[in-house]
Design brief:
Helix 1 crosses helix 5. It contains nine helices and 14 strands. It is α/β, with parallel strands linked by helices and about 325 residues long. A hairpin with a 6-residue loop joins strand 9 and strand 10. The structure holds threonylcarbamoyladenylate and magnesium ion (MG).
């Protein structure tokens, strides 16, 4: 298959909608990372996502919608889900809720679960495509399974050239890390995945602490982005480094990067976790490409987007499956 790349101009959204309507795959920018989209209502279209990514089939996907009306057709929102949707949508938040009656999302996209993950992205290009298409679009991050998520169109092209019909290039993504996923199913909302919306903002809105999922077998994930080794560069990753050797690359944080490595990229010289999140996956890719003996990572604080950054780094450092 030939992969077409187009700049995100006015005709791009219409072109994308046409590809989606034909059962094709479109990679497009959201404010978090680039997504690999297909018509969420057609199983055969969804199947092509799994094939392109070489993704294990048990991973359910997020259905993207342009507005609340679209969201209510897919899922049942309890009080807490409604509060979060009205406070944080559009934005880097995904809500997992019970499927609505007649939910049109294909079973393959929800992996046969009776819940559905829904997101309303804020990115104007994503919005334009979703509005032009008029149906939900399921989209995982537009990378091969196990690779780090793409924050630029060039990353998508490298991973998925010849496997995706159209890539809409809208520049670098702003948040840089995937959406925060919160399940609003029972009484207590559960943080399934830390991400681009800090836990503190959600807890402040709800007035309760978010529960974390009960301990489970990491090989049979509840939210499979949660596979222990998931966001993995090819070279080993060493966390909380307090020194670095010459054959290692350094992923630094803050104004005083460690000395000793020839190759250093700094996530945020001023120590800002939002800036660090935006740089995380791009920097990991760039260091990985230099094939150092390992990537040493300086400690990152846990506050704000630090929770999500540390989560992704733990997975990048986990023993490979
Ligand atoms: O920022 C994002 O969320 C990006 C952009 C493209 O929207 N998407 C993304 O999708 O990160 P993906 O497929 O890489 O991660 C989706 C996560 C997976 O961990 C999956 O297990 C979880 O959402 N998920 C989807 N449906 C679920 C459900 N019904 N219950 C629990 N987890 C679910
Ligand atoms: Mg992903």
């Amino acid at each position: 298959m030939a992969t077409k790349v187009t700049q995100a101009d006015r005709t791009a959204a219409r072109m994308a909608a046409q590809v989606l309507a034909g059962g094709g795959l479109v990679a497009f920018p959201t404010e978090t990372v680039y997504g690999l989209g297909a018509d969420a209502t057609v199983g055969a279209a969804v199947a092509r996502i799994y094939a392109a990514k070489e993704r294990p089939q048990f991973n359910p996907l997020i259905a993207h919608v342009p507005d609340l009306q679209g969201a209510y057709r897919l899922g049942r929102f309890n009080t807490q889900a409604l509060a979060l949707a009205s406070a944080f949508w559009p934005g880097p938040l995904t809500l997992v809720v019970p499927k609505a009656e007649g939910c049109p999302v294909a079973d393959l996209a929800t992996a046969g679960l009776d819940t559905v993950a829904i997101r309303m992205p804020a990115h104007p290009v994503a919005q334009a495509i979703l509005q032009a298409f008029g149906k939900p679009v399921c989209a995982p991050s537009a990378n091969r399974s196990g690779h780090v998520s793409p924050t630029a169109a060039a990353h998508v092209l490298r991973d998925l050239k010849g496997r995706v019909d159209l890539i809409v290039d809208g520049g670098a993504t702003q948040v840089g890390i995937e959406s925060t996923i919160v399940a609003c199913i029972g009484d207590a909302p559960v943080l399934l995945r830390p991400g681009g919306l800090p836990r503190e903002a959600i807890e402040a809105k709800l007035g309760v602490a978010l529960a974390v999922p009960a301990a489970h077998d990491e090989s049979k994930p509840l939210a499979p982005g949660m596979l222990a080794s998931h966001y993995a560069p090819r070279v080993p990753v060493r966390l909380d480094a307090t020194s670095v050797s010459a054959n290692e690359a350094l992923l630094a944080f803050g104004p005083a990067p460690l000395r000793g490595s020839d190759v250093t990229l700094n996530l945020s010289v001023r120590g800002d976790t939002a800036e660090a999140a935006a740089n995380l996956f791009g920097h990991l890719r760039e260091l990985d490409d230099k094939r150092p003996a390992a990537i040493a990572v300086m400690p990152i604080p846990h506050s704000g987007l630090g929770e999500a950054i540390n989560d992704r780094l733990r997975r990048a450092a986990a023993p490979r499956a």
